[in-house]
Amino acid sequence: MSEITEQKQVFKKTVVGHKCDNCGAIENDYTVYEETWFNYSRAHSGWGNDSCESYKYFDVCSPACFLTLGMKDGMENLEGYDSAEIGDMPWKFFKKLAETVK
Q1: Domain ranges of the chain
Q2: Inter-CA distances, 15 with 21, 27, 28, 94, Å
Q3: What is the reported pTM?
Q4: Cβ neighbours for 68, distance < 8 A, ≥ 6 positions apart
């Protein structure tokens, strides 16, 4: 029996850091990222295909970046949807929270 062999090189994608979606800060230490950063999603379940497309995930490095990016993105993409959520809270509640913290 004759074997035919081939040598192949495999590349693996590895996360080496995280970038804040609001201010652009970079964190390469995963422990710091896990302890101090916030990863959240936003979406709405309104009628139509755009509800599937409304799911988006963000990394932010601070509460200030969460509130700033959340308000900007929410006003552009969630306003008018009763079912909208950002960071696992109703959009309308998030807006009140952001306005209270100002």
Answers
A1: 18-101
A2: 16, 11, 9, 30
A3: 0.79
A4: 22
